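Problem statement: downstream parser choked on a complex file, so we are re-checking the raw output for the pantoate run. The parser issue turned out to be on our end (a line-ending mismatch), but while we're here, posting the original submission so the record is complete.
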Amino acid sequence: MTTALVPTMGALHEGHLDLVRRAKEVADRVVVSIFVNPTQFGANEDFDKYPRTLESDRALLEPFGVEVFAPSIDEVYPLADRESPQGRIEVPDSISTFAASQPTTTFEGATRPGHFDGMLTVVARLFEMVQPDVAVFGQKDAQQVFLVRNLIEQMFPQITLEVVPTNREADGLARSSRNRYLSAEERLHALVLSRALINLSLRLMSATSTAEAVAEARASVEAEPEVRLDYLDIVDPHDFTPVDEQFRGPATAVVAAWVGSTRLIDTINLVIN
Ligand code: PAF
């Protein structure tokens, strides 16, 4: 009997359901964890307002016949300081050591210090608790997938990683639990992110340099009202560092921006010829 784990923070949408569908294809038993992990949110981030919709999440999952694992904070972090769980849960030494050897302080990690330490801590903890044979993650969080792949390789080699392509709305917006924060107008502005990535992949076919194509894509995001670009770059999928002009082959474009006060990320796989 094989078990697949789909780790989530709830506020489920079609993108999560794609992960569940994939999990059902590859394992006999599927566990969907729902846990809003305090340690991956920074002090000024949206931990308190992050949508918690356990009952509707359970209803969405009901037709799939999966197990919902919604642990309490005490179950996940039994040794935590109860006064201030968000700030005081210690990252285990094994995870700190692993994180220090990985790109955890660039891109998402540069803007969200400590985010990946918290993410890796909870993912390792969920692996220990659920003991899955397979773990299913969404490609949209490209840096998370990169890190989890290496975490599995180094610390949980018995687990197989399944990565599921990003689920998009009809107009291209990547599905995210945070999309529900967007006003109708912000949602329209947010489309610039997926468009910039698609245009970038096309532009690379004719641009004289990769840097020029990236600069144009950044400018297109910066030109959009209500959108504040954090980063847009193309990274080498082997080490998650920005590609140089000599780079050829499959690569990953990543973007993050605030639309109003909502931080969104997106990614696309492309090829530089
Ligand atoms: O991608 C997410 O929703 C979270 O980072 C995860 C993997 C569930 C860990 O809290």
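For whoever reads this later: DSSP finds ten helices and eight strands in the chain.
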